[in-house]
Amino acid sequence: MIASYREAVFEDLPQIVKIYNTTVATGISTADTKEVSVESRHAWFYTHTKERPIWVKEYHGKIIAWMSFQPFYGRPAYGQTVEISIYIDPNFRGKKLGQQFLGEALEKAPQLGIKNVLAFIFKDNDASLKLFKKFGFKEWGNLPGVAVIESQEKDLLILGLKI
Fold first, then answer.
1. Local structure of 87: helix, strand or coil
2. CB distance 26 to 87 below 8 Å
3. What are the pLDDT digits (tens) for 53-112?
4. pTM of the entire structure?
5. Alpha-carbon distance 125 to 79, whole Å?
6. Is 71 helix (H, G, I), strand (E, B) or coil?
7. Is 68 exposed, middle or buried (0-12, 13-18, 19+ CB in 10 A)?
8. From CA 63, how far away is CA 81, in angstroms rounded?
9. Among 130, 118, 97, which Cα is nearest to 163's?
């Protein structure tokens, strides 16, 4: 499936949040344990810039996926390193959108001054681990039991790729 991507605008935030919230209940893709509100994501949205964007993918005018590059650790020395997040509407998962989006993001990264891309992925998220490893990401860190979701400890893997 080919879907076009573009930079997100504030009016996209409700759809971005809706897609994000579909992952909360699964406990596999996010450490949020309750759905977030659009209002609670305003500041997050505005921290993104042209160099650290949020992109959305549309299909027939509907947002079906989004991707963001976020600064890592918030200190100037880490300015060339970002965390990447990709979320896909449940009706469009399994159609290679993640693969398409990740490829596009990595292709654009050097133009945005990005030299290192990090992905924070729970160890039991097999689909995301497989996707990122397919693009050459390696395990750069393992944080055992750092998250607790529904009384269950979860390991967080940090995957990294030097561009």
1. strand
2. no
3. 999 999 988 999 999 999 999 899 999 999 999 999 999 999 999 999 999 999 999 999
4. 0.94
5. 28
6. strand
7. buried
8. 27
9. 118
